[in-house]
Amino acid sequence: MFPTVSHFLSYLFGINLPLPFNTFGVFVALAFVAGYWAFTKELKRKEALGIIHPIKRRVTIGKPASALELITNGIFGFIIGYKILYAILNYKVFVDDQQGVLLSTKGNMLGGLILAAVFIYWAYKEKDTAKLPQPKEVDVVVHPYELMSNMVVWAAVWGFLGAKIFDNLEHWDTFIQDPLGGLFAFTGLTFYGGLICGGAAVLYIARKNGIKPLHMLDVGGPGMMLAYSVGRIGCHLAGDGDWGIVNLNPKPFTWLPDWLWAYTYPNNVAREGDPIAGCVGRYCNELANPVYPTPIYEVVLAFLIFLFLWNIRKYIKSPGMMFGIYLILAGVERFFIELIRVNSKYTVAGIPFSQAELISLLLFISGLALVIYSNKNREKLKSY
């Protein structure tokens, strides 16, 4: 396994280059890039078809930087400089424990002050260059795809919070033992929590900018599935604990690689399992028994679903239909993966189920209802 990018480079090229990048984090970033691409393509396509429209926004140009803008930029610059210079001067400590450094009060005051000054000057100079003798109001046209940068930021923030909240609810016993560790750890994220909270933030921004919810949901279906597929690559490569149950069964096909059937996740980032003899470092554990590598199964399934959605999107005319199909397929895929995945179980009326199984079932039912509603009201929704 490759808990960090350095482990990956060492495996591929045999070089030891200490880098402060977690493999899982890199693939989360790549998942956002993939989602950004798919969302942008769909927003442009729907605008070209006249389904969604650009909006006019009145802005004031030629004003000097306000005190609030200078202060905000200064604070932002200080935080970055405070951490960056400390990380550079204490590089080995930072590489070994990025989370501990970033979430602590450790930093370099000089670095913070220097970058605060740079950011303040930058904000001042940028506004000063465009300053007019008399500021004026103008109308600017904002295309839907130009909202994506703002949407990605909000989706990332609220998605991360939602993923952490749902994960800690799923692992409540562990959370109450170390609440701060559970909230601020970079591992332990629940996809559905991120989907619900991040999706709600995106819908809010879209609604504020004249994009109706059903159209925005349809835009998001393929992109979210693609992002999910990319993100699951990080889960598998890093070994973040999101794996399957113990699998001691013989391979059904001799040609099937062992790592696709049963895997022990050596050097996993979750640091679960038995110590590896002769291994030195933080990530020196390997599962005692091989498990189903469910993340890699989801990489394949999610990508196939994305390809299906991407190819049918041009033929679907009724708003809400695309997202309904996405919900059905996403719910089915995750429900069956849960049958061989490690998870926490709840029991209600004698029926055991996991959080993901419950949400998967709700997604399927919601998707089916949305498809029926969209199909039944096809004519009415044409003017939606």
UniProtKB/TrEMBL annotation:
Give the enzyme's main class according to its UniProt record, as a single word.
transferase
Q: What is its EC number?
A: 2.4.99.-
Task: Give the record's keywords alphabetically.
Answer: Cell membrane, Glycosyltransferase, Membrane, Transferase, Transmembrane, Transmembrane helix
Q: Where is the signal peptide?
A: none
Task: Please name the GO terms that the record assigns under molecular function.
Answer: glycosyltransferase activity
Bilayer-crossing residues are 20-39, 67-89, 109-124, 145-163, 183-206, 295-312, 318-337, 358-375
Under InterPro entries, the record lists: Lgt
Family according to the record? Belongs to the Lgt family.
Q: Enumerate the PANTHER family for this protein.
A: PHOSPHATIDYLGLYCEROL--PROLIPOPROTEIN DIACYLGLYCERYL TRANSFERASE (PTHR30589:SF0), PROLIPOPROTEIN DIACYLGLYCERYL TRANSFERASE (PTHR30589)
Instruction: Spell out the protein name for this chain.
Output: Prolipoprotein diacylglyceryl transferase family protein
Q: Which organism is it from?
A: Pedobacter albus
